Task: inverse folding
């Protein structure tokens, strides 16, 4: 059992905590416990950084947090990999044209302005979080005048998107520059609202009825064997190359999600004799068939699992690798299903997604009609669920399918 020790909250409060206790209502401690329990991987640490004469600079992975950059410092930002500048300052706060100067250096410039606490709206938080979620691909400098406003919006991102406990994130935000209690109150109210909404509103189906045939109690398994396990199917023909790309290690616990007739699940079980394979599918008839496949595996290390339409029904922290092959486009409730995969993975666990590359004017008519979206949208959904793309693997023989490898963050 890979759990974590029970969280302990000290009853001793520092002077700083006492000064800010009015912005930590009871919900915050509930939120602290829930988010702390799901933050299974350490996020990038906050570290002091130097950008010329720019004041109060901190770095967190590929995100830079700062006060107002000096005009003379803009030219050196590219040397640190920064591609985008996001300012929280309003028009008129500077006596020079920052937008023009930033663009002249070949950098992207985005303005999300607010100043008075009442102008720190939900829309501001939403927009900043959207931008900060892109920092893995677009290294970003987020700034205001002193980093006071930066600390407020970054606090929401740190808790809701990076799953850092609120108590920890508050300390970090104050270190970055957050000083205004009204900003802090706005951030904690926003966090509470978004946190509650995410857990009380059921996800809407993105493709109603797409799995109707698989839920049919009279599903003809033999007919699907003829469709799935045939050399004209790209992933089946190149199954050996796919298995190599999975980088399996003996002892791993692997979930084949959307296992179907089980040809990948059985092959993985053969390659991890000291490990275990969960063959997961929503089709009751497939799961019945998978029971027979499991009984015939050499190492008896495979368990069929009947999934729900929005959950893989695996225990928390029970797997090292989740493998989703030509199945993601069948996720009718991708947010909830991905959340269940995220819970099932151990810290720094791997998610591999293989799916059809849906490209207008290039993909087959079947793909264009059957697959609801392209790679970019699927990637965005997966990253929003708490995963980080580590690589797109070029697998020999795969021409209309792509192979994406993510890790749990």
Result:
């Amino acid at each position: 059992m890979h759990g974590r020790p029970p969280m302990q909250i000290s009853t001793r409060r520092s002077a700083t905590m006492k000064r800010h206790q009015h912005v930590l209502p009871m919900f915050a401690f509930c939120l602290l416990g829930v988010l702390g329990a799901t933050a299974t991987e350490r996020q990038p640490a906050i570290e002091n950084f130097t950008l010329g004469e720019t004041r109060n600079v901190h770095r967190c992975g590929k995100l830079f947090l700062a006060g107002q950059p000096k005009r003379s410092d803009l030219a050196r930002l590219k040397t640190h990999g920064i591609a985008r500048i996001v300012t929280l300052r309003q028009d008129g706060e500077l006596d020079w044209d920052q937008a023009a100067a930033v663009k002249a250096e070949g950098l992207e410039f985005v303005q999300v302005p607010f100043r008075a606490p009442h102008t720190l709206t939900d829309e501001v938080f939403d927009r900043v979080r959207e931008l900060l979620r892109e920092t893995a691909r677009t290294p970003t400098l987020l700034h205001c005048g002193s980093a006071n406003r930066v600390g407020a919006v970054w606090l929401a991102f740190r808790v809701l998107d990076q799953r850092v406990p609120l108590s920890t994130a508050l300390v970090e935000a104050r270190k970055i520059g957050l000083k205004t209690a009204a900003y802090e109150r706005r951030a904690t109210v926003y966090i509470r609202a978004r946190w509650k909404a995410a857990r009380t509103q059921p996800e809407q189906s993105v493709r109603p009825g797409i799995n109707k045939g698989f839920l049919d109690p009279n599903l003809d398994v033999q007919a699907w064997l003829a469709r799935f396990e045939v050399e004209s199917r790209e992933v089946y023909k190149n199954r050996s190359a796919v298995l190599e790309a999975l980088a399996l290690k003996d002892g791993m616990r692997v979930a084949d999600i959307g296992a179907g007739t089980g040809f990948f699940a059985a092959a993985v079980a053969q390659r991890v004799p000291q490990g275990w394979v969960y063959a997961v599918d929503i089709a009751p008839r497939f799961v019945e068939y998978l029971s027979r496949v499991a009984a015939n595996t050499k190492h008896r290390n495979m368990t069929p699992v009947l999934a729900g339409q929005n959950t893989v029904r695996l225990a928390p922290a029970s797997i090292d690798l989740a493998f989703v092959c030509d199945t993601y486009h069948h996720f009718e409730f991708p947010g909830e299903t991905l959340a269940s995969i995220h819970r099932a993975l151990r810290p720094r666990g791997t998610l591999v997604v293989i799916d059809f590359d849906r490209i207008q004017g290039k993909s087959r008519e079947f793909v264009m009609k059957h697959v609801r979206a392209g790679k970019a949208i699927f990637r965005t959904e997966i990253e929003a669920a708490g995963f980080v793309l580590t690589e797109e693997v070029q697998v020999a023989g795969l021409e209309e399918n792509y192979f994406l490898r993510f890790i749990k963050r």
Notes: Confidence is low (pLDDT under 50) at residues 1-41.
